């Protein structure tokens, strides 16, 4: 029964087309209670030995109160080994944990505007609303940005409170450094824009390139469509926010170099509270699963004396 409980807890279940997820602890607990209750019934009917039930459940005193009544009462609960903690362990948000998936995303054949949007979300970890509300003057993608009137060296993006026509609004004020490659990507996107809508001099970085709204600020609905197409091309579901989660995890775990300090990541992501940043340090589903699948991870063997 304990092995079954562990199996239920660590085996992801596929529901519909979405990503396979672990059962909630409360669900696992409910299954175990049902089976224990079944054996209790079977013991009462004389179908299984009473000793079996004694190994599966025990009497527990419930103190006086709403659940225990005036004097408290005894009730039967599964034994400790079969109980499930129903307090949810906070888990890190879903991110692109496979390097192959991250590479595949960056290698997709996209129009230049979409490529630049994906790269900006992926490398700068912006919220999609922040990216959509960027003005051209917020992009300082040069090594020396004094021509823009900015003393910050190296390519970066200013996330500011603009109010463009699409209603998108940046939530916080911060500067996020970006890789130099983004400057090329942006140049390509600008070239494509001029080809499509002419040199419109519009302030928005992201504009619709066709249809009746061509040249106007790109809407969130169009980005949702884009990510639907990306999901189809990649073969797994991806939302814009997953790119932000991925960037946060890459920074904190140092997957592209040294780990970035938690408080720096907080500032880069524009979190007001460190608690929001801390969620990325929580155990991920994959690491929990790996720990159970490989007992050596959970119970390291220490060499004995003289070893
Ligand atoms: Zn600047």
Overview in brief:
The protein has 307 residues and is mostly helical. The protein has 13 helices and 5 strands.
Uncertain ranges: 297-301
Biggest beta-sheet profile: 3 strands, antiparallel
**Mass-distribution shape:** elongated
Total individual domains: 2
CATH fold topology of the largest domain = hpI Integrase, Chain A
Structural class category: mainly alpha
- Let me know the CATH homologous superfamily of the largest domain: Intergrase catalytic core
Give the SSE order as H and E letters.
HHHEEHHHEEEHHHHHHH
What fraction strand?
Answer: 5-15%
Question: What's the CATH class of the largest domain, please?
Answer: Mainly Alpha
Describe this structure in words.
The protein is mainly alpha-helical. The chain has two domains: about 1-80, no CATH class; about 100-280, Intergrase catalytic core (hpI Integrase, Chain A, Orthogonal Bundle). About 45% of the residues lie in helices and about 5% in strands. The chain contains 13 helices and five strands. The strands form two sheets. Strands 3-4-5 form a three-stranded antiparallel sheet. It is elongated, with a radius of gyration of 27 Å. The protein starts with a helix and ends in a 9-residue tail after the last helix. Residues about 295-300 have low confidence and may be disordered. The structure holds zinc ion. Zinc ion (ZN) binds near residues 145, 152, 156 and 158.
Helices and strands in order, then pairings?
Elements: H1 2-10, H2 25-44, H3 50-56, E1 57-62, E2 73-78, H4 99-106, H5 112-124, H6 128-132, E3 139-140, E4 156-159, E5 174-177, H7 181-197, H8 220-234, H9 240-253, H10 262-269, H11 274-278, H12 285-293, H13 295-298
Helix pairs in contact: 2-3, 5-7, 5-9
Residues 140, 145, 150, 152, 156, 158 line the site of zinc ion.
